Amino acid sequence: MAAEEEDQLQQLRSKATELFIREEWNASIEAYSHFITLCTKKLSHSHPNQKLSRSLCIALCNRAEARSKLKDFHSALQDCDHALELDATHLKTLLCKGKILLCLNRYASALECFRTATLDGNAESVSGYLERCKSLELLSKTGCFDLSDWVSNGFRGKVPELAEHIGAVEIRRSEISGRGLFATKNIDAGSLILVTKAISMERSIIMGGVQDLSEDAQLAMWKNFIDKVFEFVGKCPRTRGLINRLSYGENEDQLEVPDVCLFRPESVEKDGEVEVGVDMDKLLGILDVNSLTEDAVSANVLRRGNDCYGVGLWLLPSFINHSCCPNARRLHVGDYLVVHASKDLKAGEEVTFAYFDPLCGLNKRKEMSVNWGIHCKCKRCRFEGEVFSKQEIREIEIGLERGMDGGGVVYKLEEQLKRLKVRGKEKGYLRASFWEAYSQTYRTERAMKRWGRRIPTAEVVVDSITDVVGGDHRLLKLLMEELKKNTGGVVEKDKVFKMAREVFGKIVKKQAMKTLLQLCIGD
Ligand SMILES: C[S@@+](CC[C@H](N)C(=O)[O-])C[C@H]1O[C@@H](n2cnc3c(N)ncnc32)[C@H](O)[C@@H]1O
User: Fold this and answer.
1) How far apart are alpha carbons 215 and 267 in whole angstroms?
2) Ligand 1 atom at minimal distance to the Cα of residue 355
3) Which tens digit of pLDDT belongs to each residue from 433-478?
4) Which residues does UniProt assign to the signal peptide (predicted)?
């Protein structure tokens, strides 16, 4: 190599390394790219040159690291693979690749990478990663998450590391709308259905509730979120391909039904698959239809103090349709969304959660469903559509709106239920719709003195509402209050724990569940 060329390469390499050390990622990527191009050209025109080949390997490895800092994992992995073609045992590249694969929740591939890294006698420096991969892979397969320690410590410390997990579900055509997620086996209440990390999230700190977040702040948050998703999608063809399969709110019934396996982090699109682009308009439609917020009543944020409000996009949960009688709930743990059954599900049954509060009346639910652009035709909505057209029920609803005392509303409603011979689940639908009145009554001593003997007990009402909407934290709270009042008499502790499983899922052991109940439900 001419001395002049060597000088140029040397200078480029030093510049790139300096920028890399200063953590100026974009500039270092640019400098390394220049170096890599020159180096590659040189190597293709000269005899094998070990020194140059080694420099190229290091440059590719450093560019991979810089790219991964900018979350450009796809290109970073390509750099790692290129570097490993030059030196299959290059430790720094193996570690870099392994860490990227871990970030992408590709535990088995990461494990393979770290194992290769141990072959050159680096077992000690890699052992921590090996253990982490093994335990995450096991968690991902079994779904046996246990957040007991974190919960028992009052959510102090880092949010525990979760892993991607897809339970016994598949995507199928749904009678509700378009595609939906369906159980392939019986799933017990409380069992996990999905655990998955947001492809992007944006959070704001709020002092009170979400209502304290100004419209401007919400808009800014939404804009940042869209920018983040757009940037990420631009960098990652796999995510682009998966996002492209989500509904954008039109022609849902004609959209393809993807195989659930595509959403496993280890799955890579088949070779030769046409590269898809996502245009801004379609992406906005997709985000509008599928993004979830952390504040929904149907969701619980497992963290002490709800001082954070976030919006995010989770891919596979985007196939879950809404129902006013949901059978699943979602919890937010860090950037992970944990979906569990809130009722027992039969194989073949569609998994649904509530996009908005199911413990309110038909008209309120209709109002809220407009924001989601849906016109819900579930059994409950159809039944209530008929019942709410009856004069007697409308009068009770109007009474409640005008501030009639809760006990009076409950008494009148129960009388009408008897008169109209409403039974079973249908009774539960209406009680869920008038939940506010029931809850007010059971909680007020005066109301209970006046109406207590003439209305069903809180336990009976909680049972009948749970039967239709599944476990809910407000029902659980009322049940706990009844348990306290009756000092274990009527409401049994086991019943409270059963409902707690439906509300929070089986992610904590019994002792930690007590703490969780105190922190999230208790006063
Ligand atoms: C998050 S996606 C759910 C999956 C969607 N069905 C699909 O095929 O991709 C939300 C969209 O599903 C439809 N949807 C969900 N629940 C519904 C319901 N109860 N009634 C009518 N449409 C519903 C609406 O079009 C809504 O915009």
Assistant:
1) 40
2) 16
3) 999 999 999 999 999 999 999 999 999 999 999 999 999 989 999 9
4) none
How much is the ipTM here? 0.99
The residue behind tokens 């809220």 is 368
Please name the amino acid found at residue 220.
Answer: A
Beta bridge partners, 192, equal 340
DSSP 278-311: --HHHHHHHHHHH-EETT-TTEEE-SSS--EEEE
- 322 CA to middle of ligand 1, Å? 7
**Bridge partners of residue 350, in order along the sequence:** 182
| DSSP state letter for 257 | -
Count Cβ atoms below 10 Å from residue 316 Cβ, excluding itself: 24
**Six-digit token string for 499:** 């409902």
Q: How many whole angstroms separate alpha carbon 291 and alpha carbon 299?
A: 13
Beta strands across the sheet bearing 179-183: 169-173, 179-183, 350-353, 321-322
Least confident range from 238-247, 313-322, 391-400: namely 391-400
Evaluate if residue 26 carries a pLDDT over 50. Answer: yes
pLDDT category at 371 given cuts 50, 70, 90 is confident
**Distance from Cα 178 to the centre of ligand 1, integer Å:** 7
Pairing of strands 308-313, 336-341: unpaired
Which residues, 6+ apart, have CB-to-CB distance to 141 below 8 Å?
A: 165
Edge-to-edge strand ranges of the sheet holding 292-293: 200-205, 308-313, 292-293
Q: What is the CB < 6 Å shell around ligand 1? A: 174, 176-180, 246-247, 249, 252, 255, 289-290, 318-319, 321-323, 372-376, 378
d(CA 458, CA 16): 70
Q: How far, in Å, from the CA of 375 to the mean position of ligand 1?
A: 9
CA of 492 to the centre of ligand 1 (A): 38
Flag whether pLDDT at 191 surpasses 90.
yes
Set out the domains of the chain in order of their start, with CATH numbers. 3-142 (1.25.40.10), 148-353 (2.170.270.10), 362-521 (no CATH)
β-bridge pairing 192-197 and 336-341: antiparallel
State how far the Cα of 62 lies from the Cα of 457, in Å rounded to an integer.
Answer: 68
Residue-wise pLDDT tens digits, 232-277: 898 889 999 999 999 998 899 999 999 999 999 888 755 445 566 7
